[in-house]
From TrEMBL:
Gene: slyX
Residue stretches in coiled coil: 20-47
Database matches in InterPro entries: SlyX
Pfam families assigned: SlyX
Keyword hit for Transport: no
Record keywords, A-Z: Coiled coil
Presence of the UniProt keyword Zinc-finger in the record: no
Family, per entry: Belongs to the SlyX family.
Leader peptide range in chain numbering: none
UniProt-recorded name of the protein: Protein SlyX homolog
Length: 68
């Protein structure tokens, strides 16, 4: 194997390793963001469920008297 070819292969390997690390960093950041968004969705679903329950709970004070 000649020297130029060896240098070319080593250069390609170095770029590939850098690219893989960059991609890994992006994937890790995306996973963190996905986890945050899933948590926010859970909180919103819980809030909407509580709001729905509150609508049907209504107290006697909230009801309009029959003469209206």
């Amino acid at each position: 194997m000649d020297e130029a070819r060896l240098i070319d292969l080593e250069t390609r390997l170095a770029y590939q390793e850098a690219t893989l690390q960059d991609l890994n960093d992006v994937i890790a950041a995306q996973q963190r963001r996905i986890s945050e968004l899933e948590g926010m969705c859970r909180q919103l679903l819980e809030r909407v469920a509580r709001m729905g329950q509150d609508i049907f709970k209504g107290s006697a004070e909230d009801e309009v008297p029959p003469h209206y």
